[in-house]
Amino acid sequence: MNHFTYNKTWLRSKFPADTAYISIVRDPSEQLRSAMNYYYLPELLKIKSENPLKTFLENPWRYKNRSEVNFAHCNVTWDPSRNFMAFDLGYPTDGVEDKERTRRYVNELEADFTLVMLLDHLDESCVLLKRLMCWELQDVLYVTKNNRSYSFKEYVPSDKEIAMLRRWKAVDYLLHDTFNKSLWRKIAAQGPGFFEEVTRVKDVNERVNTYCAEWKDGETNLTLTVETSKWNSFNLTVEASRWNSQFEVDAEFCRVLNAKVIQLLEPLQNTTKDGKFKLVTERINMRELIDGQPTFKHQRERRIYLNRVKVAKELEAKKNETKPNEQRKDEE
Keywords for this entry (predicted)? Predict the structure, then answer.
């Protein structure tokens, strides 16, 4: 699931007891950097400096009343600048100051999840996931996506700024510190061959990425099938090793690897002809909120609202056009 907020009670009511729960966290400072760009936070927080990340880190509490937002359509209050990862993992925004409650919840998460991966150590996390789930090497290959450029991307916060951020994002840092230790503890239990497999996976992933990048350049239509692809006769063969059996990388494999998550989920979400249950992304809702517009859960609701606004503007424009004509008639 993508951008799913963890709800243990709901999930346990829908899935069998032996379901494996997997998640991923990252360095909280990197998460803030990314969220600040993705969710238009400089606009939300009204920061106009050349380096909004640095400005924010000087005193995050200055922006508290602006950074906490409410999506009225689902009655959810969240803060994309604060403990965003903890929020995604089900921790309520009103509990950020309660250290004991935070510790209990993180301990509970550690017991609930089969594995919490770290983006900071993605290759090691993928190999551990492969082993824990008894998967094949091709099941953990990946391509980097959403790698955007922005002005403050390369800024490295000072020790003082990180110390300030550790206080501001205390729950996220507890999550990251806890699951960083957990990851390396689980890796240590895997034995000496683990890092040899990491090297193998990294090598194969690089080769597959190179091959699929060429395919993407040659065939950009994501609806293309294996049968119609001109790359059909140029499959990449990944030879067998101690860590994997031989497998083929073809056009269909590359199509799935290169596809955006939303494209992969779309067939599951479009359950009606009019896309009634297709969701509005939180990024779009954040843009609407900043612009003073209402937020929506489903795209169909948003389209209806936008059409009404469009009709209202057209009617207003027609009224304004008739006013000068009426004035001229009165003058005559």
Answer: Glycoprotein, Golgi apparatus, Membrane, Signal-anchor, Transferase, Transmembrane, Transmembrane helix
Q: What is the pLDDT of residues 201-226, one digit of tens each?
A: 999 999 999 999 887 655 444 444 44
pLDDT digit string, tens, across residues 57-72: 999 999 987 887 777 6
| Stated pTM of the model | 0.83
- Position 329 scores a pLDDT of 58
Neighbour tally for 206: CB within 10 Å:
11
> SS3 letters for the chain?
CCCCCCCHHHHHHHCCCCCCCEEEECCHHHHHHHHHHHCCHHHHHCCCCCCHHHHHHHCHHHHHHHHCEEECCCCEEECCCCCHHHHHCCCCHHHCCCHHHHHHHHHHHHHHCCEEEEHHHHHHHHHHHHHHHCCCHHHHCCCCCCCCCCCCCCCCCCHHHHHHHHHHCHHHHHHHHHHHHHHHHHHHCCCCCHHHHHHHHHHHHHHHHHHHHHHHHHCCCCCCCCCCCCCCCCCEEECCECCECCEEECHHHHHHHHCCHHHHHHHHHCCCCCCCCCECCHHHHHHHHHCCCCCCCEHHHHHHHHHHHHHHHHHHHHHHHHHHHHHHHHHC
